Amino acid sequence: MNDRTVVYSTYYNPMEANIIKAKLEDSGFACFLADENVATLNPLYNQAIGGVKLIVFERDVEAINALLAEDNSLAFESSDQVVDEEAADKTVCEKCGSTNVGYGMATDKKYSIWATILAFLTLTTPIKANKCNHCYDCGYEFK
């Protein structure tokens, strides 16, 4: 029997990773999440660590593929309108066209020039940070 483990998939949202993990555990598959704590405590490190990794046994990969494909096909059959509305609400990256986009603290231009000047004059750290959309596939940030 092959007891080798593999990274089945990666997620940039720890909640999504936990949902898939719970679905697999309910179906009797042994699995665990790697880098979940780092991604939860400091979401800005998600791209650097490669996201939350779902680890499964290599022998279970085909059965997991079948289970998740079956679950996805049932979801599409039962709620076609909901899926279309969710797809319309997703933000699309302006650079690469990916929908793997999140809104949050900017990493590139985190502070405005005024916040930086004020912080310099008062010898403190800037208190107001910019927020923007961040593409997790190509790293591009946009409003």
From TrEMBL:
Record-given protein name: DUF2007 domain-containing protein
InterPro entries: DUF2007, N-reg_PII-like_a/b
Domain DUF2007: 13-70
One Pfam short name: DUF2007
Origin species: Pedobacter alluvionis
Classification of source organism: Bacteria, Pseudomonadati, Bacteroidota, Sphingobacteriia, Sphingobacteriales
